[in-house]
Amino acid sequence: MKTKYLVWGVAGIVVGIGLSGTVWYYQNHQAQVKATEIVTDFTNALSQQKFTELNQYVSTDSLKAEGFTKEELAKKYETIYQGIGVKEAKIKEIETKKQKKGYEVSYELTLTTALGKYTTTYQAMVDADKIQWTPALIFPDMTKDDTVSYQPISATRGQIVDRNQQGLAINDTLDQVGIIPGQLGEQKENAIAQIAALYGLTSEGINQTLAQGWVTDDAFVPLKVTKDAPNENLPGVEIRQTTGRYYPLGEAAAQLIGYTGEVTAEDLEKNPKLEAGQLIGRSGLEQTLDDTLRGQDGGEIVLLDQNQQEKKVLVKKQVTNGKDVTLTLDANAQKIAFEHLGGKKGSSVATLPKTGDLVALVSSPSYDPNKMANGISSAEYNVYAENEAKPFISRFATRYAPGSTFKTITAALGIDAKTLDPDQKIAIPSLKWQKDASWGDYQVTRVQQTDEVNLKDALMYSDNIYFAQQTLKMGEATFREGLNRFIFGETLDLPFEMKAAQISNDEQFNSEILLADTGYGQGQLLISPVEQATMYSVFANEGNLVYPRLLLDAQTKTKNEVISQEAVKIVGSDLRAVVTEPTAFGYRLNALGIDVAAKTGTAEIKQSQDDTSGTENSFLFAYDYGNHNYLTVTMFEDSQGEYTAIKQADELLSYLNQTYQ
Fold it and tell me: Where in this chain does the record put each NTF2-like N-terminal transpeptidase domain (predicted)?
């Protein structure tokens, strides 16, 4: 019996030890799980940037030891995370180990900062269900007296230059005009009125600026950024230098080049890669080529010691400056073309037809891109926005009925179809004509009475009736087949928006009247000045069409044998006669003394044929007849008086002839 009791006693000891071990293991495991959960909750609060929640996971004694309160802990994290632009924090690879006192929880934390990702491994000690916090949990190697410095380096925006390296959109030193309110003197309102008058501002606008809550008597209050601001030592005025975007041609190239502006909250939502304070393109080439021009900002996030000396570079991102863009544009031609439009509604396009280089792309009226980029008042903006002449639109890329300049293409197609005999005299007895009674009241009209007309006469005197008859003779199928060899329906490879040229609203005319009208450049034809210049390039390239290019490093593209060399020779000779014959409509250009061929044109904008209140758009197509080195298309909307295309062409044609021969 004693032996039996002994066996049972030993068994009881064994069972007791086993139960005790199980309980110890369970308790230890639970503590380990708890330690892991605490660190996970801590880092989750970090990832959500809920900094005020951090203190519930942190030991109060550890904070005191580091000289922090709970409020200061939250503020420390908030200041650092916001300062370096932390957008996201992710934790992974958590591992918990038992130590003599508490648990060591290691984890990998990745912070997505304004300069990119920072990834490292942290060790957090957990004891009594609290993290024993130290500054090393912000960044390893960080102590309580260390600080974090964010040192951004902005990328330099690429510049836009013309074919001769003249600046079109440049980074320049500008004048920032401002006021020190306390220095305005006793006659404050009088001083403000003088400042407003000198710098093109309003007294009301200046007073509104000065009324902002942050303004003090000693503060510098910016009013305007401009180039070469006048300095007349007015009381309170201070001019400081700053850097900014500047557009040397101003209004002359505004629609094409565009302007920049600072990134907005809406921009950041659309493109998370952008950063607050960056400049981005807002319109024109500045916007279209923004990715090329903008580059990528860089910088460093650095851990500094108590003496503000570099202790460790945490994140480093190399800055990548934007690339310069060289255009085919000629800044001098652009200015001349803009000036000859005289602020009227119109456009001028000049090309080098052998290469397709666009040397002038002008739209009028215009706006000042420097104001748009560097600060424009509501009143100034409203002047532009409410202008019925629409200064923001790019008329060089806007489609119009091309009018009589299009007769050149109809003539070439008729010659190639062998339905038009250029030497044949056709009797046209009156100024009005219709095919037959099926046309009802509709009649084609012309402006000059010529009893017998051949192709040369029809081009010299812009005879609508002749071209209407020739188009009907050619027939829709042949006419459309010829037109489709051009660029109708094609989107041109250019860095600005422009709808494709169209022949008609539908695939068929379904009307002899519409067919006839199209033959002399009316009907439903819609072609922008850029597209017109492209189509007319066939006359400078032996029948081959050369596509336009605006970027100087772009390849020249061609479409061969759009019309025959015979058609080019015949039509070209007649267009030269438009200039040299004293009675021809283009004879005015002969006084320039240059070897140019041309076609004038008008396009009527009417609600009906009886409409007497309609307007006329004036066109001129001209090119270097002898060497084919330049070509222009000029257009005026609602042309009147001196402002017709042919009357305003002299200076531009003379410049092109002198520069590109």
Answer: 34-146
User: What is the pLDDT confidence band of residue 613, given thresholds at 50, 70 and 90?
Assistant: low
Segments forming the whole domain that contains residue 462 = 331-659
The CB density around residue 174, as the number of other CB atoms within 10 Å, is 22
Q: What is the pLDDT of residues 80-106, one digit of tens each?
A: 999 998 988 898 888 888 888 889 989
Q: Are 54 and 74 in contact (CB under 8 A)?
A: yes
Tokens, residue 394:
């790019």
Alpha helices in 271-419 (DSSP H): 284-288, 290-294, 331-341, 369-374, 378-385, 407-417
Whole-angstrom distance, CA of residue 176 vs CA of residue 377: 15
Q: How many domains does the chain have?
A: 4
Evaluate whether residue 67 is within a structural domain: yes
Single residue among 263, 295, 326 that ends a domain in this structure: 326
Domain boundary among 245, 268, 297: 245
Residues identified as active-site? 404
pLDDT of residue 316: 93
The domain that holds 157 is classified in CATH as 3.90.1310.10
Residue count of the chain, please give it.
661
Which H or E run contains 37?
helix 2-47
In a domain, 406, yes or no: yes
280 near 274, Cβ under 8 Å?
A: yes
| Distance between first and last Cα of the chain | 131
pLDDT digits (tens, 9 = 90+) for 556-606: 999 999 999 999 999 999 999 999 999 999 999 999 999 999 999 988 775
Asked if 240 contacts 180 with a C-beta cutoff of 8 angstroms, the reply is no
State which H helix or E strand residue 605 sits in: strand 596-605
CATH number of the domain where residue 415 is located: 3.40.710.10
Same structural domain, 374 and 500: yes
Considering the domain boundaries, does residue 379 fall inside one? Answer: yes
25 falls within a domain = no
Are the CB atoms for 301 and 149 separated by under 8 Å?
yes
Q: What is the pLDDT of residues 2-17, one digit of tens each?
A: 444 444 454 554 545 4
Q: Are strands 167-179 and 221-226 parallel, antiparallel or unpaired?
A: antiparallel
283 and 151 within one domain: yes
The pLDDT tens digits for 212-231 are 989 999 999 988 888 888 88
